[in-house]
Amino acid sequence: MNAITETAYEPTAYHHLVSDEGAALDIRNFNLWYGEKQALFDNTLPIQKGMVTALIGPSGCGKSTLLRCLNRMNDLVDDLRIDGQIMAGDFDIYGKGVDVIALRKRMGMVFQKPNPFAMSIYDNIIYPLRVDGVSKKSILDETVERSLRSAALWDEVKDRLQDSALGLSGGQQQRLCIARGIASDPEVLLMDEPCSALDPIATAKIEDLITQLSGTYTIVIVTHSMSQAQRVSHNTAFMYLGRLIEYGATETLFINPQRERTSDYVTGRFG
Ligand code: ADP
After folding, report:
1. Secondary structure of the chain as H, E, C letters
2. Mutate to test the pocket of ligand 1, among 65, 75, 225 (most ligand atoms within 8 A of CB)
3. Helices 170-183 and 200-213: crossing angle, nearest 10°?
4. Which of 7, 19, 49, 235 is most exposed, with the fewest beta carbons within 10 Å of its own?
5. Against a cut of 0.70, is the pTM above it?
6. CB count, 10 Å around CB of 232?
7. 106: closest CA among 224, 42, 185, 23?
8. How far does the centroid of ligand 1 lie from the alpha carbon of residue 152, in Å?
9. Of the candidates 34, 47, 150, 153, which has an alpha carbon nearest to the alpha carbon of residue 93?
């Protein structure tokens, strides 16, 4: 199969189920360059509210790059240029004068490796509130319990909230990071291969958690695991060489893909 070039490029196949009506995030004609190198080409996809959207595709196809644009984590990269729009409702994420810190609170992020801070479990959770100057103990206590319960971790840690977060297992640390991500009550959770450092049992717990959290939060997850995408996501976007090849309901995309390249990827013919 030929590599996609400007001339050989086929337009994205959109399945009818994914419309931009009620989209939590609407990515429109989005391009990105790292220096001279273009990494995203004309990506257009609505991310539906309260649903789990998986970004899949071979390594280097731009999944993490696109995810990091949603809360402008890529702003920290030198020599980065973007073109196009990402809307959160009426709010233009790359609009002039956007408060990026406030934006990141609306979009919690969970990374490949759990990254708890070297402080107690309790202090990890309340960190985003402390940054905001919240000091009332009843609010902090309530947030800790609510966030840990939402992240399915409360029962395991409720008797040792003052212990160091670094003493938790990898899977517990990742659930703690999810709890920290939801402590500031975001609308969206961005997850960049959140299970890649975890064993199968811890992975299953995070996947269950993703399912529980959907509905309350809009979740975008980058995963290299096609079985994980099928287990946890409602919609899947297949990317290849920076382009969005196909986007639709997960079940349809895996069972009845419209593009040959999607079919080759989901059946494991390349990757
Ligand atoms: P994926 O998440 O699908 O593996 P990435 O988004 O990490 O892909 O990378 C997409 C492309 O952008 C790759 O060619 C990668 O080398 C390049 N890239 C990613 N981050 C940077 C960076 N900070 N500077 C320059 N190039 C980058």
Report:
1. CCCCCCCCCCCCEECCCCCCCCEEEEEEEEEEEECCEEEEEEEEEEEECCCEEEEECCCCCCHHHHHHHHCCHHHHCCCEEEEEEEEECCEECCCCCCCHHHHHHHEEEECCCCCCCCCEHHHHHHHHHHHCCCCCHHHHHHHHHHHHHHCCCHHHHCCCCCCEHHHCCHHHHHHHHHHHHHHCCCCEEEEECCCCCCCHHHHHHHHHHHHHHECCEEEEEECCCHHHHHHHCCEEEEEECCEEEEEEEHHHHHHCCCCHHHHHHHCCCCC
2. 65
3. 20
4. 7
5. yes
6. 23
7. 185
8. 33
9. 47
Ligand 1 test: best mutation among 34, 191, 220, most atoms within 8 Å of CB?
34
In angstroms, the CA 247 to CA 258 distance is 10
Q: Judge contact between 174 and 198, C-beta under 8 A.
A: yes
Q: What is the pLDDT along the chain (271 residues), one digit of tens a residue?
A: 445 454 467 788 988 655 666 789 999 999 999 999 999 999 999 999 999 999 999 999 999 999 999 999 999 899 999 999 999 988 899 999 999 988 998 999 999 999 999 999 999 999 989 988 999 999 999 999 999 999 999 999 999 999 999 999 999 999 999 999 999 899 999 999 999 999 999 999 999 999 999 999 999 999 999 999 999 999 999 999 999 999 999 999 999 999 999 999 999 888 7
- Whose C-alpha lies nearest to ligand 1, atom 16? 60
Return d(Cα 271, Cα 223) in angstroms, integer. Answer: 13
63 CB near ligand 1 (under 6 Å): yes
Residue 176, both tokens? 């703690």
